Structures are given as structure tokens and as C-alpha cells.
What we know:
Layout: H1 7-12, E1 13-15, E2 18-20, H2 30-45, E3 53-57, H3 61-72, E4 76-80, E5 97-98, H4 138-159, H5 176-182, E6 188-189, H6 190-207, E7 215-219, H7 223-244, E8 258-266, E9 271-279, E10 282-285, E11 307-308, E12 328-332, H8 336-347, H9 352-359, H10 363-388, E13 392-395, E14 398-401, H11 402-422, H12 427-434, E15 441-445, H13 456-468, E16 480-484, E17 487-494, E18 499-501, E19 504-506, E20 509-515, E21 522-526, E22 528-531, H14 542-547, H15 551-557
Parallel strand pairs: 2-10, 3-4, 3-10, 4-7, 12-15, 12-22, 15-16
Antiparallel strand pairs: 1-2, 5-6, 7-8, 8-9, 11-17, 13-14, 17-20, 18-19, 20-21
Amino acid sequence: MTAINSLALIALKCAPNVFDLSSDMTHASIRDQVVRARLLARDLAQLPKPPQSVLVVGAGFAGVSVAMALAAQKIKVLVVEVNRQPFQLQSKVSDRYVAPFMYEWPSHNADDQSYPPAGAPAWSDDSILAGLWDAPAIATLKQAGRDRGAWRKRWKRLHGVRSHGPYPAEPPHWDEWFVRELRGQVPLPAKELARRARARLLEHLAAIPPTSAQLKILTRVDADAIKRFVGAFAKQMGSWYQSMSSPPIPGSYRPWQHLRVATGVDWLTSQPEHNVPCDVDAVILGGGAGPERVELDAYPFKFDAVGPAAGLSFWDNDGWLGASADDHVGVFGAGDGALQDALRALTGHKHPLMTIHAIRRDPRARAALTAVEPELAAIDRQNWLAASWTQVSEEKGKPRFHRGVLDEVLDQRCRAIACRLSEQPGINQAVADILLAGTGVVYHVFQENYFTKSYLLNRFLLHLIDVCQPPGGRLAGKIRYSSMPDMAEIRGYARSVVSARQGYQRADYRIWLKRRYSLSYFSVPMHRVAVRYGRLHPDSQPGHQLLGLSSEKIAERTCLGGVSYPHVAEPMP
């Protein structure tokens, strides 16, 4: 018997010869998506009878990565995308910053902004991400030019100098983080990352010989036609397995394996194409996790309502980095997106790594953090491993996720470490320094009594900020963090029309909350809201939509979805 790599094939298979890279996956960073896609491509290519032609649905980071890796193994790939260009989701947002290894904090490579990681022996990576973080963002360079020019004019006026220079190397008001931005050592805006990824993809496609048709990307395709084909393909493939007890021979296509894309645009040439044929041995879904739920439930008695209490999607520009610290902000949800938004509202920082860097500027805080980082790394690693081997159980007829128990324990341990740190000299002042100066409050509202699926850096920072505040109060002159867990009901509406003020979305919201085991609501006025309730509905995810699978079936095949991924997927031999 031939031994093959099969973990990716088992974990990502959602129907016969259909694999889903996106729905219900625990690890969701862009780097994890790329590694997951490349491992699937490796394992498919190493099958005793690998597919000869593959349809990839979606041209995001996962879909493009699996397509590039399969094409490198001489497997024909057609990528179909409903938008006008690959990486469309990240292309419109400059307020979100992406780092390759931030979720490994506090390991030594968490602050490494090179991909593959610098200093690792004999890394070789030809993925879509390779080298994208090696240069500063264009916006950073433009800002540096403006700052340097203004500072030089002021310097010449102060010193009575008319000639050009000599000047100090950098303006003295530049902070450490901005200098790191100029050196290409910090996270990139999502929009810039998508632009660089498209440039790299164009280079890859242009290098393919014209006589070879290994990889083709069609944009602006008819989503309904693809949905119909994928659903029929999965159904017919399942019937084939049942009747023949073996998979079809790759390359010997049946009528239900023939796809003809009626209309589309060849992304490489920008030329419209009609009736593009494709024979399909396997389908890979990379269409993302579906639309988000960004709206609160309505309050039944809306005396002065003009609209719902709703925020923007995660990959939308919200202007929060320049928002006022005097606002009352509502962040709803206990997952990673909610934690990131709470930190952005509290600090105005572009990225959580920027926050931890700012805390470590104080030598006493740096020493205290360094002392507890091994303990934090150990409990985080234990949590990931335990979650990988823990499935869903039934308790009194209701599904109970043991993962929630693990998250609750991790929360308790993080908070205990944060409490110990708050007693160390310098920590409270360092935390006060990172908070924005203002009279505002960040209300963090969620139904659980612990943070759910979130990475350690965001989780620990919020606990540290919370315990460093005086009980029931705020650090002098600083915006306050108010954690409001264990809410049974969360409802709200807008009392004024949402408008852009100072570059960010702002309105007058009335939020009604009811605590667990309480009989009455209480209201909280807010000016900004971010609703991070995850996906709109399980059936809105591409895997469910395209295949008509139930949540239970998806849960069965994603019990391996919590297995952590390598930092880099090694190239295939």
C-alpha cells in the first residue's frame, strides 16, 4: 500500500471530489489560508491518480494559492471569480493592517514581517505571499516625504540655513514604529497587500508559456451558473462513488463533469470570453466564509428610530483610526474581530503589534512582559493542542462546544497573568500611555462570559488594559474600557442618520441590554458601533450554498479544522 499525505484531504473534503478551503475553518489569517491551500495542492498532486483538471471557485488568497500550486504540478486549473479582480475583499480597505506571524505572539517570530520568515535555514517559498512585506507601503513613503520636507524647512528657519543640509538622518519627532514602517518591518495595509499580490500574480501568469493552458483566471462570471454546476457535480460524483465503489479515472470525463462558463473576463488579458469550456476532476471552494452579520436585533419599542444599529463589514474602511476618543463606542461580539476593533478604538493603533511595542518602550514594563511571555506561550500552545483534539458533544439535547470551555480557561489564565503584571512597577503607566486621551468609553458587549475564538495577542492586551484601570473608573484623562459580558439580549436602533464625521461613521445609537437572569432591559447611548457576530447564517457560507450541505455535515468534516498549520508550506518536491 502506498503511503500518502492525507490530513488536508480529510480535513478539507466536504463532498466527493470537492474541497472547501474557507468555511468553518478555525485558523483564518491570510497566512494560514495560503499554507492550508498549498498543503491541499501538495496532497492532491501526490495521489496515486491525481486530478488532471481542477475548478477553483474564488480568487482570494486561498483560491489563488491552491491554483498556483496545482499549476506548478502540471495540473490544469480554471479559477472563476464573480468580482472584477482577485483579492477584491482586501482591495478596498486601508484601515486594516495585515501581518504574517502576529498570531504566534509571544513566540520569537511573531514580530517578523518577512515572508518566509527571516533567519530560518533554507526556507524556499514560491507562494503568493513571498516577499510582499519586504518594502514599506507607498502611503508610508509619501507621509515620510511630507514629514521630512516640513521638518527640514522648520530646521532651516530655526538655524538660519539657506543651503541644502546637512540634516540629521531622521526628523526627531519620528517614533520607533514609523521608522520601522520606513524599513518595511511592520504590517501592511490590506489594500497595499492586495495590490502587491496582484502584481506578483500577474508576473506568475505572464511567465506561463502561451502554449500551456495550466492556469486561467476568469473574473465577472455568473455566480448562479457556477453554483448550479458545483451542486450537480457533487451530487453526481457521490452517485458514481456509490454505484462504482471507486472514483472516476481522472481525465475520462462524463457529461456532468463538463463546465462551460457562459461569460467572463480573462484577467490576464482583460478580454471578455464566452462559452469557456472546462472538464473537471475536482472542485476546490475558496469563496470565503460568506457575508457577515453586522446588525443588532431590533428593539421592539422604537420611539425615535430612523434605522437599525449596524456597523460596517470587517473589510470595509471605517475610519476608526482617526476617530474621536470622546465618543461612546459599542463593540459587539467576543471573537477576534471584535477584540481587534476594541483595541483600535482604545489606542488608535494600526495593529496590535504596535500596541505591544508601545507598552514595551518602558524598560520596567519590557522586563515584566519578558518574564511572563514563556508562560503565556505555554498556555496558548496548550489551548491550541487541546482544541485540536476536542470535538462537539451533546448535553441535554443541546450541542455544547468543549472549545468554549477551553477558551474560558485560557481567559482565566490570561487575566491572572495580567493581574500579576498590573502589580509590577511601570506596567500601569505603560498601559495608560497607549490609551487615547479623551472622555469616551469603549463598551465591549458580548453574550458569553469569556472571549471566544480569538488569538492570544488581542485577548491578552484587552485583559491587561482592563485590570490596569481603577475598579469602576478610568485612568486619568484616558478613554475607558468597559467589559460587559454575559448579556442575554442585545438590541438597538439608530436615532439619527449615520453620517461620515471626521472621516469615520458616526450616529446617535440607542442600545438596549438585558443581563442573564435579569427581567428588565437597560439602555446605553453610543456614537459608533461595530457588530462582530460572525457569519450571517451557516447556510450563507459558500460550502453550504454551493452544495446544500447541512451544518452538521460541515461540522463532521471540520473536526480537524482546529489543527494548527506550519508557518510556511514547504515547496513540493
